[in-house]
Amino acid sequence: xxxxxxxxxxxxxxxxxxxxxxxxxxxxxxxxxxxxxxxxxxxxxxxxxxxxxxxxxxxxxxxxxxxxxxxxxxxxxxxxxxxxxxxxxxxxxxxxxxxxxxxxxxxxxxxxxxxx
Length: 116
Hints:
Strand content: under 5%
Structural class: mainly alpha
Distance between the termini: 39 Å
């Protein structure tokens, strides 16, 4: 049996993971709209799991500077998604294919997965 504290910690960890996945998806979808410095910092922190301090050292700025840069970048990505909704449409299309997967040709589903 899991204690309430352990359950809370697991839920927090799952929420953080969902947040990171969402950020990665936004970066994949809209990362081209960021400056080279913004994109580099986000990729290093998110995809390469570098610490803010490591990125700060590489970019010659403070840890707080990298934190602010990543936060502003994430905000810009979220605002872009709210305005355009490409990621939401992609998720809806994936859900639709999953609902109908057993009725769709297997090769069709495989090709869609390659595109996504």
